[in-house]
Design a protein that fits this description.
Blueprint lengths: L2 E2 L2 E2 L6 E5 L3 H4 L1 H7 L2 E5 L8 H10 L7 E4 L13 H11 L5 E5 L5 H10 L3 E8 L6 H13 L4 E7 L3 H14 L4 E6 L6 H4 L8 E4 L9 E2 H11 L1 H6 L3
Parallel strand pairs: 3-4, 3-10, 4-5, 5-6, 6-7, 7-8, 8-9, 10-11
Antiparallel strand pairs: 1-2
Length: about 240
């Protein structure tokens, strides 16, 4: 069974709060209350020197939650365009200070980042973000296979759903392949329900925002927490009202 730090993944839904370094202080109380883990969105940091970023990632341990680090590429929703060499240096600096890294499948540095994380005993999430459309079922399957071929512990697919049919297709892919370790998210208005219900069908992590929406259709932490309490008895048993 996969573990994110001390957190077991799979039996119950898990909420991740994406954070910049400024959010670590301003949203700390809400994050401790409603999140099971945090995602350090290093592309949203004000500074990107590896030593500075490592310091922030280590300081984030004060929240007492498992940490995922990502330096999201600009063409997959990142806040700033950083060269691959700079991103690689950041990942190398922080991977010992966090519990998992998230790197895009299409990034030239993907395999190197995954290999570095696994050498350090960290989870490797290999992701694909499509803000324009939901790929075909064949393409989705190929992306997932490629992520695991690249050494992923978890394959993540986040795709824009233009209709309920797109969300249904993403759910079908999740149900067919969930035994391998997947995060699947339908972005946009037609995919909001996926934030709550896909974790009930095996998506390992769902993401809610503490300060501002980080992706189309992302829900506020407290709202996501309340919905999972209502619809998941296992989540409600593990998370007090």
């Amino acid at each position: 069974m996969l573990r994110l730090g001390a957190l077991t993944l799979g039996p119950i839904p898990r909420i991740v709060a994406p954070l910049s370094e400024l959010d670590l202080h301003g949203a700390a109380d809400a994050v401790r209350r409603y999140a099971d883990a945090i995602e350090l969105r290093i592309d949203r940091f004000e500074r990107h020197e590896p030593a500075y970023v490592e310091q922030v990632c280590r300081a984030a341990g004060a929240l007492g939650l498992p940490r995922i680090a990502t330096v999201r590429a600009a063409d997959e929703g990142g806040a700033v365009a950083l060269a691959d060499a700079q991103r690689l240096a950041i990942f190398d600096a922080v991977s010992a200070a966090v519990d998992a890294v998230d790197i895009e499948l299409r990034a030239p540095i993907c395999r190197t980042v995954v290999d570095g994380a696994r050498r350090r005993g960290k989870l490797a999430i290999v992701s694909l973000h499509d803000f324009a459309a939901t790929p075909s079922d064949t393409e989705l399957g190929a992306h997932i296979d490629a992520a695991f071929d690249a050494g992923a512990d978890i394959a993540k697919i986040a795709a824009h759903a233009a209709s309920a049919a797109d969300t249904d297709r993403l759910l079908g892919v999740l149900r067919a392949r969930r035994e391998r370790g997947l995060i699947v998210i339908a972005m946009g208005a037609h995919g909001i329900a996926s934030r709550v219900f896909f974790p009930l069908f095996g998506s390992l992590l769902t993401y809610g925002f503490a300060v501002q929406e980080g992706a189309p259709g992302q829900l506020p932490l407290a709202e996501l927490y309340g919905a999972l309490q209502r619809y998941s008895p296992a989540f409600a048993a593990a998370h007090p009202a």
